[in-house]
Write a structure and sequence with these properties.
Structural class: alpha/beta
Strand order of the largest sheet: 7-5-4-3-8
Number of helices: 10
Number of strands: 8
Low-confidence stretches: 1-20, 81-89
Shape: globular
Mean pLDDT: 77
Oligomer: single chain
Order of helices and strands: HHHHEHHEHEEEHEHEHE
Length: 229
C-alpha cells in the first residue's frame, strides 16, 4: 500500500513539473549574452535551443523581450505608432527600446524564427474604467489614447494572450517630453545601446492570460479591435 501511494504521489509531482522550470527559463533569458542579440535570428536560436516545447520557447522569448527592452515614452509621444513607422528612427534590438507595436511585432518575428505557429499580432484597447467593461462596446466608449498592441497565441488547443509591453518594467522618457528626436532622447538611446540593462523585475502575470483572468486579478481587460462596434 505504501509503495502504491508513493508511486501515485511521484506521478503527480513529476507530471506537474515542466521540462524546464520557470526559474530556469528566467535565468536563461536574463543572462543571454549581448553578442547573440545583434539580430533576431541568432538571439532566437540561442534562447530556444534548450527547449523542445513550443510553450517554453514562447516563454523564454517573452521573458527576454520584457527584461531587455524598455518602453520608449519619447517615441509614443511623437505619434509614430503605425506599423509602417515602427523602425522609423532606430532598430529595436540595437537600442533595446520601443513602444507596444515594437514589443508585439518582435514577439511575432521571434516566434516565427523559433518555428512556433499560432502567434498573432493584435491591436485593440486596454479598458480600465469599470463602467466601460461591459458586453457591447462602441467607439464612443473608447478613449483613443488607450490604443494598444499585444499578441494572441493559439497553442495546444488553447487561446491566450501575451503582452510583453505590460511584462516589461523598463522605461525611458516621460509624458512631458514630446520630441522623439530630441537631444535627451538620443542620449538615452545611446546609453541603452552601450550600457545594456537587464530588468529582471518583469510582470509574469501578462504571459499566458485571458481577459477573464485579467479582469478578475487587475480589474482591466484587453479588448481586441474586432470586438468594438
Amino acid at each position: 500500500m505504501k509503495k502504491f501511494l508513493l508511486t501515485v504521489l511521484m506521478f503527480f509531482v513529476f507530471s506537474s513539473v515542466p521540462a524546464y522550470g520557470a526559474s530556469s527559463i528566467e535565468n536563461h533569458a536574463f543572462n543571454a549574452p549581448d553578442h547573440v542579440a545583434t539580430n533576431r535570428y541568432t538571439l532566437t536560436k540561442y534562447l530556444t535551443r534548450p527547449y523542445s516545447s513550443d510553450y517554453d520557447k514562447l516563454k523564454v522569448i517573452a521573458y527576454w523581450i520584457a527584461s531587455h527592452i524598455a518602453y520608449d515614452g519619447y517615441k509614443y509621444n511623437s505619434g509614430k505608432t503605425d506599423m509602417k513607422e515602427m523602425n522609423y528612427q532606430y532598430d529595436v534590438l540595437q537600442y533595446r527600446t520601443g513602444i507596444c507595436t515594437d514589443f508585439a511585432q518582435l514577439f511575432v518575428d521571434m516566434a516565427k524564427i523559433a518555428g512556433v505557429s499560432g502567434v498573432e499580432y493584435v491591436r485593440g484597447y486596454v479598458l480600465e474604467n469599470q463602467n466601460m467593461i461591459k458586453r457591447n462596446y462602441t467607439r464612443r466608449d473608447i478613449n483613443k489614447d488607450a490604443g494598444h498592441a499585444w499578441n494572441r497565441v493559439q497553442l495546444d488547443r488553447r487561446t491566450f494572450f501575451v503582452d510583453t509591453t505590460f511584462m516589461a518594467r523598463g522605461h525611458i522618457g516621460g509624458d512631458r517630453i514630446r520630441a522623439a528626436s530630441s537631444l535627451k532622447h538620443k542620449i538615452d538611446l545611446r546609453k541603452r545601446q552601450y550600457n545594456s540593462t537587464v530588468n529582471t523585475q518583469i510582470n509574469v502575470n501578462f504571459f499566458d492570460f485571458t481577459p477573464k483572468q485579467e479582469l478578475r486579478k487587475f480589474g482591466t481587460i484587453h479588448l481586441m479591435e474586432k470586438y468594438i462596434h
